[in-house]
Specification:
It contains 14 helices and 17 strands. It has two domains: about 240 residues, FAD/NAD(P)-binding domain (3-Layer(bba) Sandwich), CATH 3.50.50; about 150 residues, 2-Layer Sandwich (D-Amino Acid Oxidase, Chain A, domain 2), CATH 3.30.9.10. Strands 3, 4, 5, 6, 11, 12, 13, 14 and 15 form a nine-stranded mixed beta sheet that branches. Strands 1, 2, 7, 8, 9, 10, 16 and 17 form an eight-stranded mixed beta sheet that branches. About 35% of the residues lie in helices and about 25% in strands. It is an alpha/beta fold and about 425 residues long. The N and C termini lie far apart (about 50 Å). One of its GO terms (cellular component) is cytoplasm. InterPro entries: FAD-dep_OxRdtase, FAD/NAD-bd_sf. It comes from Pseudomonas fluorescens. Its EC number is 1.4.3.-.
């Protein structure tokens, strides 16, 4: 069977050394079979193992191969649609539960890093940067909203204060969230995988799930083996393909592009982001950036609907970087890559159960780093019979894309064009 390596990226090039993991070659029995060794799968596995379950994880390529090992590395609280939107959609009781959970993912990441001594360049502090007075007004109301749900580590930044945290003259203000922050995302995944194995969990790499035999005792088939389990957790997200057709119809893989500069040196790096916070702007089609542990700038943005790989990522993203930081015009780009995340029509995650024993979470819609860690805990709770928090997510409406899989890409691209115009003209 072909060995799928990590795609070229700064993260793959600077990943911590880990032992190779075997492909599944025979038949195994376990309590829970987790499909996908990204954050959702690893978080689920870790919580289950800590609660006495026997767990096997199937990964089609390598741990953190998908969005978990290629994202911008930012710990951003809440969901891709905020709690006020959820409240209007589902009512106050369910929104209260989801609101209480909106800041839990970041806490779980920090607990994991501390408990299992994961080396992933964890830094505290994330900035939402406003380009217009309207966006600043939105941040003011967002601060009030988040504080209503007990989240207090927030500070509004006026034009002078934001200049102190980011050397970019585009912004009129912003909001600093000290419970936000950033990490080396692939090293976080690799550290969590090592934690899974330290508790007796088994991870099989190069072992894609090709078929699920549903029923009272479900079986997951791989090209060379199979796993019999009491429960299955489907955690493949944008890399699931058509393994579970009813999930594929309600979601769409999208690509985002990231570039990484050569090392900038301490002085230039500190001049750009003096406190080493990560930053994302408030546009609908947003840009995001941060410094790495070795003082490079990672800069990402743009969305490619339908998850095609654009021919020249640097040509798409470098102009955005230079608009923010013209002082980097002579700096070389060492890495450029794309990775897929899974978009849902509502921009809210899709959580649920198929039959009695197949659980799933998917569709973080660009807010995956924190949400996936929470999802793992919520899925593990559901398997232990504590379903209240699981049900709060499962009751969110799941909409199929209009026109099905055939029209979902042009439909979403049209929406992006519209929102791109709104960003451009400051609506």
């Amino acid at each position: 069977m072909a060995n799928t390596p990590y795609p070229e990226s700064y993260y793959a090039a600077s990943a911590n050394a880990v032992p190779p993991r075997p492909a599944l070659q025979d038949e195994v029995e376990t309590d829970v079979c987790v499909i996908g060794a990204g954050y959702t799968g690893l978080s689920s596995a870790l919580f289950l193992l800590e609660n006495g379950f026997k767990v096997a994880v199937l990964e089609a390529a390598k741990v953190g191969f998908g969005a978990s090992g290629r994202n911008g590395g930012q710990i951003v609280n809440s969901y891709s649609r905020d709690i006020d939107v959820i409240e209007r959609s589902v009512g106050p009781k369910q929104a209260q539960l989801l609101g209480q959970m909106a800041f839990e993912g970041g806490r779980i990441i920090r607990e994991r890093v501390a408990k299992y001594n994961i080396q992933c360049d964890l830094k505290d502090g994330g900035v939402f940067a406003a380009l217009t007075a309207k966006q600043m007004g939105h941040l003011e109301s967002q601060k009030r909203l988040w504080e209503r749900f007990g989240h207090t580590q927030l500070e509004l930044l006026d034009e002078r204060r934001i200049r102190e945290v980011v050397a970019c003259d585009q912004y009129v203000g912003g909001m600093l969230d000290m419970s936000g922050g950033h990490i080396h995302p692939l090293n976080l995944a690799l550290g969590e995988a090592a934690a899974v194995e330290s508790l007796g969990g088994i991870i099989y790499e190069q072992s894609p799930a090709v078929r699920i035999e549903r029923g009272a005792s479900p079986v997951v088939h791989t090209p060379q083996g199979k796993v019999r389990a009491k429960f299955i957790i489907v955690a493949g997200n944008a890399y699931l393909g058509n393994l579970v057709p009813e999930l594929a119809a309600k979601s769409m893989p999208c690509g985002t592009q990231v570039i990484t500069t050569e090392p900038l040196g301490d002085e230039l790096a500190k001049s750009l982001l003096p406190q080493d916070y990560c930053v994302e702007d408030c546009n609908y089609l947003l840009d995001y950036y941060r410094l790495t542990g070795d003082k490079r700038l990672i800069f990402g943005g743009g969305v490619v609907y339908g998850a095609r790989d654009p021919a020249n990522i640097e040509a798409i993203i470098r102009p955005k970087m230079l608009k923010a930081f013209p002082q980097l015009k002579d700096v070389k780009i060492d890495y450029a890559w794309t990775g897929n995340f899974l978009l849902t029509l509502s921009r809210l995650p899709q959580v649920g159960r198929l039959g009695d024993n197949i659980y799933y979470s998917q569709g973080c819609s660009g807010h995956g780093v924190t949400y996936t860690h929470l999802a793992g805990k919520v899925l593990a709770e559901a398997l232990r019979g504590q379903a209240e928090r699981f049900d709060a997510f499962a009751d969110l409406p799941h909409y199929p894309f209009p026109g099905g899989q055939l029209l979902r890409t042009p439909f979403a691209a049209l929406g992006a064009w519209y929102y791109g115009l709104r960003d451009k003209f400051g609506y």
